[in-house]
Amino acid sequence: MTIKIAVIQFPGSNCDLDTLHVLNNVISNGIEAELIWHNHFKEAQFDGVVLPGGFSFGDYLRSGIIAAHSPALDEARIMLKDGKPIIGICNGFQILAEAQFLPGALLRNDSLKFICKWVNIKVENNKTAFTSKMNIGDVLAIPIAHGEGRYYTDKLKELEENNQIVFRYSTENGELTEQANPNGSLESIAGVCNLEQNCLGLMPHPERASEPILSPKQTMHGRLFFESMVEFIKRRVS
Amino acid sequence: MPKVLSNGDELDVDLTEPEIKQIKNLLERDPTITEWGMFDVMHSEHCSYKSSRPKLKLFEDAEKNYDYVLAGPGQDAGVIDIGDGFALAFRIESHNHPSAIEPYHGAATGIGGIIRDILCMGVRPIALLDPLRFGPLKGNPHSQWLFKYVVKGIADYGNCTGIPTIGGEVEFDKSFESNCLVNVACIGLGTIEDFKHAPSKAYNPGDYVILMGGSTGRDGIHGVTFASRTLTEMSEADRPAVQIGDPFTKKMIIEATLEAVKTGYVRGLKDLGGGGLSCALSELTGDGGTGGDIDMSKIFTREPGMNSFEVMLSESQERMAFIVKPVGLETILEAFRKFEMAHAVIGRTDDSKVLKVKDGDNLVVNLPATALSDAPTIPREEKRPEYLDKLIAQQTPEPTKDLEEIIYELIASENICSKEWVYRQYDHEVGVRSVVKCGEADSGVLRIIGTNKFLAASVGINSKHCYLNPYEGAKGGLVEICGNVIANGAKPMAMVNCCNFGNPEIPESFWYFSHAVKGMADFCTQLRIPIIGGNVSFYNEDEVTKTAIKPTPVIMIVGIIEGKENIITLPFKQTGDDILLIGDTKAELGGSEYHSVIYDLEGGIPPHVDEKNIKATWDFIFELYKKNLVKANHDVNKGGLIITIAEMCFKNNLGADLDFNGCYNDKLRDDEFLFSESVGRFIIETQPKDYNKIMEIAENLNISVKKVGIVIANPEIYIKGLKGNYVKLDVNKMKNLYEATIPNLMEI
Questions:
Q1: Could you say which of B521, B548, B564 is where a domain stops?
Q2: Distance (Å) from the C-alpha of residue B512 to the closest C-alpha of chain A?
Q3: Which of B290, B631, B636, B667: disulfide with B681, CB 3.0–4.6 Å?
Q4: CATH of A3-237, one of 3.40.50.880, 3.30.450.40, 3.90.940.10, 2.40.50.140
Q5: pTM assigned to the model
Q6: A71 lies within 8 A of chain B by CB
Q7: Active-site residue, selected from the candidate residues A90, A146, A148, A199
């Protein structure tokens, strides 16, 4: 079967081509990914959707808020209800949080500066549409690049009880320390999912961690996200 | 400043009396006030290169002499053919004056400008590099303010446009205290076809002229003439001449432009930078041998009531001018609509060779298209500064501190220490091309997807060396920047430069410029490196303190690495490996960090460049690469060889057991050997089994190669074989000092 994935381009998205490259040239495996301009997006034609990183609408007003009102999100909301997989990476996560697909908000980094570096994240939930190829406790090497990635929620307890915390920043050995938390996120949270677990948002960039040549330690942990998505879609349709 | 009059309006212009006369003779009438403004801008030093042009003729014709050079100096960017159907475009530019007044927007719009230069070659911008210069940070809140906001301006703009900042350089020196230097470089990648679709001229009469992007406002009016004057206390009042950047619009312009170029209907393309519409339209028609008929009322403005003078001279950011085939007009407009970019058809080209701009019924501009670009050159006097002999004669004092103490002080010094604080703020990974990342090597390395090629890029110059000898300093800069890409395994392909100097009307300042240009020209001709572009920024001096900046001919080199297996990185990798020093160390401490940090001295004998020896050294390195004999490579640079070795220990937490016995000339003092900044040297890591093979190659090429030690597991550096005492250094302590300096000064 051909798996159709939409990579949504908002004005100002800038990881769209990178994500497309990884889906079509690195993962491939039956995937046919396509760039779709945000107000041309029609959900029925796709099995899954990626909201890529970047600065949608220049991050003006507040990161993700303008894109959250794009018609693309109305389409995505239908997919959300249908149980199709939706992932928001970096700015995509900010958009999903603003559109209330996901709980919480992304605040300015505690250093007040943009940070670009490789970090480690620990897997807390491998039941989501994007983490089935991972084990709980696995530590993934993956880069971040954002100015507003400090996760905050006032419903921490609920998230914990519902198993919605998917990733936390950690050391290489999986310890949660203040130093390993690059932006001051609450409880080191790097990624969360919705209750139904078909929608994931995270600040780190899996598409930048999918090829050994780009990784400081020649890892390719980013592929696991997309491979899990493929598996999820295959299971869903069969 | 002379005044010109037209119809009761008067205008202060930076034109000379002979220029004013020449203009009137050419037109056989008094220009309109708008035309005066256009001449004023286009004849400014910044646009016309009137002082520098005669000297820049020393650079050989790159397009003619190198078959892989597709575009050379005089174009918006230089372009080279790298094989496999791909072309690289690159250019470097200064944005010094605006950044000295308004560091955030000054730096941001500098990035905006250089991106447009690359874009108008029809290719996608894929990398930024920023060489920056400020006054020392320590105890200097003004320098800290400039540094902080220049970096933030670059980060906010570059990050938003999705172009990774893959490298740069920061130098701190008193001479840059009030006149900081913000140079910006950009590299673009496309197919040869993409490049061919976007000539920067309007060569066909009857085509449409379209303006796309940001609206035209009152910001930046006369920014160019402002850049061609020295900074004075009045400069604060020039703040409206600094433009405001909008990286979001820029991102959309990039996408809309590339989409338009792909249609094949674009026949000419030009960005609006210095000089605004005046510059773009006169260059498009002038260079293309056509004329143009422009309707000013079609130009969308940000504020009502702008007159023709303001519209033609506005330097509002984020604008592009397109020359479009009539048959493709609707397709192009559709592309602009998709990206929701404002646009307007503002006129058509014709065969009149005259540029006409109508404001209602008034013809406000009616000039021969080439008139504006034919600024006369001005011969400048040059004179070697008298203070130089005394400076060069300065002797290195006898050290009063232990060598350990000196080395720890050097590694923590502002010019040597880690610049991580800077590059952490830059997205250096977007684009999924960054294979060797900031801080990991001497240059940034990007893969070129679809080929087995990698590009390596580096920028910089040692202004302290240039201050003592601009000719040798410029050559030394080339040796070092080429050395950076070579250390990564790349062959240097082409060079662009950004000449930052003082007031060309002062003979001593012009002497520096003239000799630096000659140094670059001589070196590049001999080593066969095409110079494919350049930028000159004069008037970098501060009238309040009466000081000129140190001469700073920044050099950028782009090289190509063939194959992933040929990428070499900097860190030591294996305990027991040999550490080899390649090249001769001479008593060349003039302008060194050692002199400056330890003794507060600026003088001494600066490094001398022997091109034959450099050529042989490079041949030697490439011969070793070919035989796979090199495991790590780092060129010897600021602070000298011991700093180089320490930097190679950091990443993998290794140490070095060094024995310098027999490695240096008896006449050299220990400190001269350790801290000399003689150019053209490398430290490489090799396997002991290959030693004889390497020495044989060295002998054949007549290269000085000395085994100076071995890599050890213990993170310490032991130095034996000096004339004085045995030295022992703690690598972790050095690393901590190296990393702490800038955060300690900036994070208060």
A1: B564
A2: 39
A3: B636
A4: 3.40.50.880
A5: 0.95
A6: no
A7: A90
